[in-house]
Amino acid sequence: xxxxxxxxxxxxxxxxxxxxxxxxxxxxxxxxxxxxxxxxxxxxxxxxxxxxxxxxxxxxxxxxxxxxxxxxxx
Length: 74
Description:
Layout: H1 7-45, H2 54-73
Helix pairs in contact: 1-2
């Protein structure tokens, strides 16, 4: 008895896998992009250069403070 592989099922699997890989890579890239570009954009928008990285600092602080409650929920 031979087993046949449905080509539409294989094509659907490959498409889903490709979409999931792209979504995961773009999602994982958002944090470093926010951190690296946040200072540059802040420098352009801030009137005081000392405040240029304040939004990025608050982002990192919020991320660090949110880690413990997220771990408790999990």
